[in-house]
């Protein structure tokens, strides 16, 4: 039996538009981002890939993208589950910083280490920083799990328990599963699914608002490596733009 998984990065956010590192800061979608989410849902409807259940992070850009896409696909009524484990990578002390200025200040090598290396996190964010999530009620139960910074390796470590305990059972039950999440939490899932090496994952960028569809076999291995974007040309152009952020 094969199952279907749809990965959808949120549409353009206000801080994507301003080119700021965002991470766990809970910014809204722009008008363009809302349009991308609706278009994502239309693509799902046109392709007949209809989610039975949706999983999102606790961040409004993913929550609202899911709602807009599902409404456009006439699937606004499906069950929804949310977890902090699908949140964007916590960007540490870079949260709120301008990507271009960071590149200019620290240079290409350090910028890329922080942004795309597998296991080098940015410096931690101070709890007193205006962009800290310490004290945010939605994370009150996290205790020692509350990150102050994360690299992709950390994201995989906190995401996999949710993958195993919540997403795999939905796939096993024969559901078409939509995950509406973030650039780096989705990179973590793609790395896991496709068995991408720690080095090669640096070159993978996920565009905003473009549904990426995986058909998975009974061992949850993709039948087509890398999955399939429903609008491959637009996705390739948008992924290249993500890769070039800061330049
Ligand atoms: O958190 C952010 O800034 C973005 O959502 C992802 O940014 P990145 O592509 O620079 O990792």
Automatic annotation (TrEMBL):
Active-site residues, record numbering mapped to chain: 10, 88
Residues under site feature: Transition state stabilizer: 182
Alphabetically ordered keywords of this record: Gluconeogenesis, Glycolysis, Isomerase
Classification via Pfam families: His_Phos_1
Enzyme Commission (EC) number: 5.4.2.11
This protein's record includes keyword Glycoprotein: no
Pathway noted in the entry: Carbohydrate degradation; glycolysis; pyruvate from D-glyceraldehyde 3-phosphate: step 3/5
Catalytic activity: (2R)-2-phosphoglycerate = (2R)-3-phosphoglycerate
Source organism superkingdom: Bacteria
Top-level EC class: isomerase
PROSITE patterns linked to this entry: PG_MUTASE (PS00175)
Binding site for substrate: 9-16, 22-23, 61, 88-91, 99, 115-116, 183-184
UniProt function note: Catalyzes the interconversion of 2-phosphoglycerate and 3-phosphoglycerate.
Family: Belongs to the phosphoglycerate mutase family. BPG-dependent PGAM subfamily.
Name by which UniProt lists this protein: 2,3-bisphosphoglycerate-dependent phosphoglycerate mutase
Organism listed in the record: Nocardioides fonticola
